[in-house]
């Protein structure tokens, strides 16, 4: 009886061990340069592939790769992770509270930020915006006052001087007086038209003194306007674009962040490439997404050569490889441990530099 119980116990332990061990890991991947790159010959490349190649050598676990289409890949892969269709993905995904309740994660492998891409064609729109600000500002009023003063003093001198035949008596003489007024204001002083009477010269002196003050105010107004415009262009934050039409990738952490920061005009695209195409076609004015992916696309894809990254970063993010919660705890810990060891190696830094990545 004792031997039978021992035998049954061994069988029970063996069954538990068999259940605990995963026969074949199903690893989902989707194209996401620079971390996962689909080569034309069907092979995979990128930062995450390098990590997995190193991990699998020490993991001693059979696996198979399940490739996902480019469109809606992030949404599909998160659903399949949660339901157990796949066991993990080597694509780094932002750790959020909602995702942490749905799947498990390895230790973070990368730290990054959200950033903003724009199309350089929108510089024309920016210039138009500056003109609108110019029209609404006090600089326009100074410009109108300056023009009015030129006309006023020009007409005043013509009324005094046209009798001495130095300024023509007709409409041409009036325009000549405006010319004299503008030349005097700008201190050019061609001397082709000058007042010769005492009253005319007194008016000219008065205009010279007034023009010095007005030009000074006009210059100061333009300078302050340009300074404010430059400060507004460089003092960028998450709220700078909240009223603009912005794009991002659906089911990404960017969507959650933009919603939390009261962005109301957000268009979600199924993948990064379609989003950048939307930016190129002016469907959106800005595209907000994870900096590593944006930088790689803009630097390595000729289609997006006219786009640029704005000097703004916000919402620091931790990226890790998500895991299905049904995986054995020991296996999850082993993968995280191997991942940490790889990040301590010198060739990890070399790899990041090769793919134009930097840690923040």
Walk me through this protein's architecture:
Strand 9, helix 9 (253-260) and strand 10 form a beta-alpha-beta unit. Mean pLDDT is 83; it is low at 10-21 and 230-234. The protein is an alpha/beta fold and 360 residues long. The protein is rod-shaped, with a radius of gyration of 35 Å. The protein is built from 13 helices and 13 strands. It has helices spanning 2-20, 47-59, 73-83, 97-102, 123-136, 138-161, 171-185, 198-234, 253-260, 272-280, 291-300, 329-343, 346-354; strands at residues 25-30, 37-38, 44-45, 63-68, 88-89, 93-94, 104-105, 110-119, 246-249, 266-269, 286-290, 307-320, 322-323. It folds into three domains: 22-109 and 321-354, Periplasmic binding protein-like II (D-Maltodextrin-Binding Protein, domain 2); 128-234, Helix Hairpins; 237-315, 3-Layer(aba) Sandwich (D-Maltodextrin-Binding Protein, domain 2), CATH 3.40.190.10.
SSE topology:
Layout: H1 2-20, E1 25-30, E2 37-38, E3 44-45, H2 47-59, E4 63-68, H3 73-83, E5 88-89, E6 93-94, H4 97-102, E7 104-105, E8 110-119, H5 123-136, H6 138-161, H7 171-185, H8 198-234, E9 246-249, H9 253-260, E10 266-269, H10 272-280, E11 286-290, H11 291-300, E12 307-320, E13 322-323, H12 329-343, H13 346-354
Parallel strand pairs: 1-4, 1-5, 9-10, 9-11
Antiparallel strand pairs: 2-3, 6-12, 7-13, 8-11, 8-12
Oligomer: single chain
The CATH architecture name of the largest domain reads 3-Layer(aba) Sandwich
- Strand percent estimate: 15-25%
Q: How large, in whole angstroms, is the Cα Rg?
A: 35 Å
Shape: rod-shaped
Number of helices: 13
């Amino acid at each position: 009886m004792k031997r039978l119980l021992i035998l049954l116990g061994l069988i029970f332990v063996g069954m538990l061990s068999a259940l605990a061990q995963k026969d074949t890991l199903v690893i989902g991947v989707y194209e996401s340069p620079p971390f996962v790159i689909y080569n034309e010959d069907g092979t995979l490349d990128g930062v995450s592939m390098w990590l997995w190649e190193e991990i699998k050598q020490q993991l001693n676990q059979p696996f198979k790769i399940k490739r996902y289409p480019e469109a809606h890949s992030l949404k599909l892969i998160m659903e399949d992770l949660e339901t157990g269709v796949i066991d993990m993905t080597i694509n780094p995904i932002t750790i959020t509270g909602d995702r942490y309740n749905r799947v498990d994660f390895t230790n973070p492998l990368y730290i990054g930020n959200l950033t903003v891409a724009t199309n350089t064609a929108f510089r024309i729109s920016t210039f138009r915006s500056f003109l609108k600000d110019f029209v609404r500002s006090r600089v326009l009023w100074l410009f109108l006052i300056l023009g009015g003063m030129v006309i006023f003093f020009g007409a005043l001198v013509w009324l005094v001087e046209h009798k001495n035949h130095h300024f023509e008596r007709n409409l041409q003489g009036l325009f000549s007086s405006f010319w004299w007024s503008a030349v005097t204001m700008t201190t050019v002083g061609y001397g082709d038209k000058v007042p010769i009477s005492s009253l005319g010269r007194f008016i000219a002196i008065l205009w010279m003194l007034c023009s010095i003050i007005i030009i000074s105010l006009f210059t100061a107004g333009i300078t302050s306007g340009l300074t404010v415009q430059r400060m507004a262009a460089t003092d960028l934050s998450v709220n700078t674009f909240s009223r603009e039409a912005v794009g991002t990738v659906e089911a990404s952490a960017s969507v959650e962040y933009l919603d939390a920061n009261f962005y109301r005009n957000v268009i979600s695209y199924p993948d990064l490439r379609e989003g950048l195409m939307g930016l190129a076609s002016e469907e959106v004015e800005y595209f907000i997404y994870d900096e590593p992916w944006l930088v790689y696309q803009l630097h390595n894809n000729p289609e997006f050569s006219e786009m640029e990254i704005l000097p703004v970063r916000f919402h620091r993010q931790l990226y890790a490889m998500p895991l299905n919660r049904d995986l054995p705890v020991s296996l999850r810990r082993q993968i995280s441990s191997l991942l940490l060891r790889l990040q301590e190696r010198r060739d990890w830094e070399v790899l990041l530099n090769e793919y134009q990545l930097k840690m923040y």
